[in-house]
Amino acid sequence: MFTRQTLLDQLAVLRLSAFREALEEQFASPQYDELPFEERLALLVQHECTRREDNRMRRRIRQARFPQTAWTQDLDFSPERNLSRSLVLQLAQGDWIRRALNLVITGPTGAGKSFLACAPSPGWLSCEFFGG
Length: 132
Description:
The chain is an all-alpha fold. The chain folds into 2 domains: about 1-65, no CATH class; about 70-130, no CATH class. It contains 7 helices and no strands. Helix 2 packs across helix 3. The radius of gyration is 21 Å and the shape is elongated. About 10% of the residues are buried.
């Protein structure tokens, strides 16, 4: 007989902790009972993949030893800073890294150059340059 606890224990052995947490949540919530098997499984796999990507991003940011904590979504695009939102969002996609191009950030004091340089985005972190 295969029990829920056996399944949860095996997920722990396989180091699928996020999958296990999501499965425990599904067991505890009757709202998942009506979903087809494939949809429930997809939710579990998606939860595990998201957790792993988040962990990879945190590890890469820690390894980069940025002098400050910054995120592209926290950039101040006020008019006095004269930052082009469309250009910053385009750069955040990381295509310039995949194409092996360099990036030089210039501007006056207080424009946010250091913040921008320390603000990784998902597009940058998933590039092969960072081992993704």
